[in-house]
Amino acid sequence: MEPESAVTTCYRHPKVESYVRCTRCERFICPDCMREAAVGHQCPACVREGARSIRRPRTVVGGRVSTVPVVTYVLIALNVLAYLGELIRPALVDRFQMLGAALTGPDGGLYVWDAAHPDGYHPTGVADGEWYRLLTGAFLHLPATEGTFGILHIVMNMVSLWNLGRLVEYRLGRVRYLALYLLSALGGSVLVLLIAPTAATVGASGAIFGVGAAYYVLARRLGDDMNTVNRFMAGLVLWLVISAAFTSWQGHLGGLLTGGAISLAYAYAPRGPRQALIQTAACASMLVLLAAVAFAKVSELTGGGVTQ
């Protein structure tokens, strides 16, 4: 009778001899399958299983901790790309800027809104069903040689987003931060629609004011040194007042209020299994509120004939 073969093979590669066992499942593994562990080696399947069982760190508001501010980078890139698009095709500004209600004349120019407009004049803006303007305007900026600031408009906004966004994204997590940014941008546009529907506006300032409000709320929630934070907020409010003379203060204020409300819901939702549900409900409620206000204003402007 021949002795039993002592050759053992890798369980993932049966043709490869192996004499090393996975320290977790104790199956034989070849050098290609070995993954270094705290003690010995593990097979790829056990490494994946172990990674799933590790509890990932969470921020104080329940978001996943991320050391790389990917969302902030993407938002800055989108704003810069949109600005380059404006330089190549200036008509993009007229097409996508925030505009509540205006008339396009026979010559193609914009005229003051009048619900009872004469023949040859056509409605344009959110009142004509261009709802996308409520968000797209937040990714556009003043052309390089126009307005009070020109190219400084996008430069100042992107520097502010770079400085504030990275910190707030780290404390909120990517998903919550993105929701805050977009809702703040929307909140700024809705307040412009509500108070100054005939004004054409562009800029990420509303969203950035919302991020600034979140920075303040989170600092208080985490017990940061409030001296620096209070000085920052005082400067932000001062800028809101001063800029009212030459920028859309409605957009700034709308973003600030929306961002403040959302960040309060983020920061003070009770921790536990229902935390994310409460925060999601707060964001959804804000979205419904903003949509209802915008719908009501457009209905008022058009005499009840809301364009879908």
Entry summary:
With 308 residues, this protein is mainly alpha-helical. The N and C termini lie far apart (87 Å).
Q: How would you describe this protein?
A:
This protein has 308 residues and is mostly helical. It folds into two domains: 1-49, no CATH class; 70-298, Rhomboid-like (Rhomboid-like fold). Helix content is 53%, strand content 6%. It is built from ten helices and nine strands. It has helices at residues 44-53, 70-88, 91-96, 133-136, 152-172, 174-195, 205-222, 226-242, 249-268, 275-301; strands at 20-21, 28-29, 35-36, 41-42, 98-99, 102-104, 110-111, 122-124, 200-201. Strands 7-6-8 form a three-stranded antiparallel beta sheet, with no helix packed on it. A two-stranded antiparallel ribbon has the order 1-2. Strand 3 and strand 4 (41-42) form a beta hairpin. Helix 5 runs parallel beside helix 7 (205-222) and helix 6 runs antiparallel to helix 9 (249-268). The radius of gyration is 27 Å and the shape is elongated. The mean pLDDT is 86. InterPro entries: Peptidase_S54_rhomboid_dom, Rhomboid-like_sf, Rhomboid_protease_S54. The chain crosses the membrane at residues 61-84, 147-165, 177-196, 202-219, 228-246, 276-296. It is a multi-pass membrane protein. It is found in: Membrane. Keywords: Hydrolase, Membrane, Transmembrane, Transmembrane helix.
